[in-house]
Structure formats: C-alpha cells, structure tokens
Amino acid sequence: MSEKPWAGRFTQPTDKFVEEFTASIDFDKRMYRYDIQGSIAHARMLAKQGIIAEEEARTIIAGLEGILADIEAGNFAFKVSLEDIHMNIEARLIERIGAVGGKLHTARSRNDQVALDVRLYLRDEIKEILGYLGRLKESLLQQAEKNLAVIMPGYTHLQTAQPVLFSHHMLAYFEMITRDAGRFQDVFKRLNVLPLGAGALAGTTFPIDREFVAEQLGFDGVTRNSLDSVSDRDFALEFCGASAILMMHLSRLSEELILWSSADFAFIELTDAFCTGSSIMPQKKNPDVPELVRGKTGRVYGNLISLLTLMKSLPLAYNKDMQEDKEPLFDTIDTVKGSLKIFADMIALMQVRAENMRLAAARGFSTATDVADYVVRKGIPFRNAHEIVGKTVRYCIEHKKDIPELSLDEFKQFSEVIEADIYDYVTLEASVNARRATGGTAREAVEREIARARKGMA
Ligand code: ARG
Fold first, then answer.
1. What pLDDT, on the 0 to 100 scale, is given for residue 453?
2. Which of 168, 202, 210, 373 is in the most buried spot, having the most CB atoms within 10 Å?
3. Which CATH number is 257's domain given?
C-alpha cells in the first residue's frame, strides 16, 4: 500500500514539487493537539454506536495518546509527502497500531475534520486572547486609579481643546478594549458548534451520534447543514475582523504613546526595557514597541482582506483554496497575542510626567469654552458668547497672556456680564470638575466609572 491514504485511484506518484506546493503540514501542524482531541472523541462515538468495536476504539485511542506524547516530546517526524496534519497523524497511527488504525476515519472526511480542528484550536486561542485583554484592561485601570489628580490637554484635530483627566483618557481605551473583548466573546459563541459529521459534504451513511461528540468536546451544539459545515469559515473571518478592530485601537494608543514620549510632549516615560537606543545618536530612546504594534496593525488588516478575498465566490462546498485560510489566521493570532501581552506590561510600567501634562493643558486657551459657558449662564446666547470669547482669546494672543491671567477690567472689555467669580471657572480643575454628568471628565464622574469598571473586572 502507498504511504498516501488516498493513493488507491492513482497510477503515478505525485510530482515532488506538486507535493510540496499542495502540502500544508508546515503550518497546520500547530493544530496537532486538536486533531488528536477530535479523533479521540470520534473514535469513542464510533464504538458507542457499534460502528467499530470497543476494543478497536481503545487501541485507537491509546495509539493517538502515544502520538500526542511523541509530538510533545519532539519525537515525531512530520512528512510533507503526507500533506497535512490529519494525514500525518492517521498514517502514524496505522504504523503504530496496525490496520485497525485505518478504522478511525470511518464516517469522517478531512473536510469536516479540518473544520473541527480549526474551531477547536481557535476556541483555545480566543480564551487566551480574552485573558490578555483582561490584563491590558487591568493595566489601563491601574493607571487611571493612580493618576486621578493628573490633568492633561484633551485634543481635537490634535489642537488643544479642553483639559481632561489623564485617568479619563486611560478609561477611553478601557472602553475600547472592553468592546473588543465583547467581540471575541461573540465570535466564540457562534464558533462553538460541532461541524464533524458533515463528512465530505453530504453527511454520512453511518449511524453516527453528533450530539455525543459535541458534548465530549464541550460544544454548545452541532452545525445544522452538512454543506455549510465544510464550507463555512465565517468564524475565522469574524475572528480576523475583531482582531483588525482591536489592532486599530492599539495603533491609536501606540500613536499617542509615541507622541507623548517625544521630547516635545514629554507626557510619559516608557520603561527602558521596552525601548531601544540609536547606534549613532547617543541621546535617543526610541519607542520601538508602540511603533511596531502600530506597524503590525497593517498585517492584521491584510490578513482579514486575504481571507475575505479567499472566500469570495467559492462555490459550495469544500474547495482546496480554503487550505489558504490558515496562515492569515495563525499570523493574526500570533500578532494579536504578542501585541496584547507586550502592551499589558508596557502600560502597567509607564511613568506619567504630570507636571508637563499640566503645563501643556494650561497652554492653548483650553478653558475658553468654560468662559463661553459662563457668559451663556448669564443670559447671553451661545453664538454671541462664542464671539465674545473668540475676541478674548485674540486679545490674549496679542498680549501674550493666558485666560486666567486677565484682569477683571480686561475681561469686561469683552462682556459686561463677566464678574469676579469668573476666576472660579477658568482654572484647569474647575474646568475639568464642571463636567460631572455620566461619561464626563470631572473627577467624581471618573471615580464613578473606575468603581464601575472595578466591579466589572471582579
Ligand atoms: N489540508 C486541508 C485544508 O487545510 C485539509 C482538508 C483537505 N481536504 C481535501 N479534500 N483535500 O483545508
């Protein structure tokens, strides 16, 4: 018998280069544990249904467990001639336990087998990613708790807009990462059904019990249509979509960390362990980690587009094209996990330079809106108030003064309604703390959100 499980109808051996070209073993071997886990559940079901003998199932399961131990000990030679992880393990099983090993593939096809393996594998990876997302949320929350007294400039168009608490800024990312976690949980829910039993595409003639296999493997149920079961890769697409959005968030945080750690902003200091120097400029400390994460966002977007393009217009059911789903998916998993792991630590160790943030917040007339709101509260329509404060700011620029430095007489040039109590409204603290409604930047509002977030994390 030829080495290849499907060699029966062939008269000539496969061309060597074709063999290499069509093989996926180099990358799909990372799913070995799940392939074996799925096969063990399948063998148990075959025996329970009387499709194979109990004794045969025991021999098969022992053989599979032996192979698992061999692979984990590094004692398994993966063969390109055996194409993929499924055939490598099956061929080794037959080598180990003899012809009975050939009964494992009864009522199964590689088409439903690979769909099962990817789901099992991705399920564990999602759990791990959710763990990393939790760690990053914890780091963001700790920074928010630690720096409640720190005021920074809030920006729109990257121009100083209004002062905000640094904690508030950290909690903005906490919200994004919380939504990301929700998206991965959604992917998990839709992914967690058993495709095995679809056979090659139409189902199987054997009296299988899919619900039993699903239960053994911890699935919430079984897929409902055999054609869809072997041709659906929505779960991989959804995963890559959730990953792309997550990386977009990390790229925005990266960009801010890069700006903030520059000499011009000097808002934060990243710990040395996460930076590198320059071979020529001795003063340099480069924010390589955020730069790389910002850069890696590109490949994660690319992987999503690759996968969408791969699946586009494919007729039902399985097509070999779909073997190309793995590399973009695996690369996304690796990139997302690496980025999250390093970000969780980097954010936790980030040092905040509160004084510089405060100085920056005081520049750029960041409390101009507070003056406008004050004038409005004295009965002036907002559009007129806007004009009044616009002129005030122009005066400040011409006289090189900041808003809180103006005398009451100077204020009064612009509006008679301004009184001495204006000074209670134009400090950074007053500006921040006036924004008390839910979701605002006032310290009390931020403290409420921190408490809420802490409860959610518990
Ligand atoms: N290596 C294949 C893949 O990743 C497994 C399924 C192959 N099925 C087939 N009939 N050629 O998609």
1. 97
2. 168
3. 1.20.200.10
Look at residues 65, 38, 60 and name the one whose alpha carbon lies nearest to residue 47: 60
**Residue span of the structural domain in which 48 resides:** 7-106
> What's the CA gap between 92 and 128, in Å, rounded?
30
Give me the catalytic one of 157, 279, 313, 407. 157
Let me know: does 140 contact 97? Beta carbons within 8 Å: no
Q: Is the beta carbon of 323 within 6 A of some atom in ligand 1?
A: yes
- Give the angle 253-257-262 at the CA atoms, nearest 5°: 155
| One domain, residues 262 and 367 | no
Instruction: Extract the residue ranges of the chain whose pLDDT is less than 50.
Output: none
Residue 112 Cβ inside 6 Å of ligand 1? The answer reads no
Q: Which residue, chain included where needed, has tokens 């032996």?
A: 66
Give 324 Cα–ligand 1 centroid separation in angstroms: 10
Kind plus residue range of the DSSP H or E element containing 369: helix 368-377
Residue 110 Cβ contacting ligand 1 at under 6 Å = yes
Amino acid symbol at 440: G
Query: At which residue do the structure tokens 């759990």 appear?
Result: 127
Provide the number of structural domains found in the chain: 3
Pocket probe mutation, ligand 1, options 21, 110, 121, 316, max atoms within 8 Å of Cβ: 110
Nearest residue to 323 via CA among 311, 335, 332, 312: 311
Tell me if residue 278 is catalytic: yes
Three state DSSP letters for 135-175: HHHHHHHHHHHHCCCCEEEEEECCEEEEEEEHHHHHHHHHH
- State residue 3's pLDDT score: 78
> Residue 1: what pLDDT?
54
Pairing between β-strand 193-194 and β-strand 221-222 as defined by DSSP bridges: parallel
Compute the distance from residue 74 Cα to the ligand 1 centre, in Å.
24
On whether both 429 and 347 belong to a single domain, the answer is no
Give the side-chain half-sphere CA count within 13 A for 171. 25
Tokens of 215: 């239960």
CA pair distance 94, 265, nearest whole angstrom:
65
Told to judge if 229 belongs to the known catalytic residues of this protein, a careful annotator would answer no
Query: What is the reported pLDDT for 279?
Result: 79
Question: Where residue 446 sits, what CATH number does that domain have?
Answer: 1.10.40.30
Q: How far is the CA of 318 from the centre of ligand 1 (A)?
A: 8
What angle in degrees, to the nearest 10, is found between the helix axes of 110-146 and 32-48? 130
Tell me, yes or no, whether 327 and 392 share the same domain.
Answer: no
Spatial neighbors of 403 by CB under 8 A, at least 6 apart, are 365, 367, 368, 371, 392, 393, 396, 426
Catalytically annotated residue among 109, 261, 262, 278? 278
pLDDT tens profile 422-431: 999 999 999 9
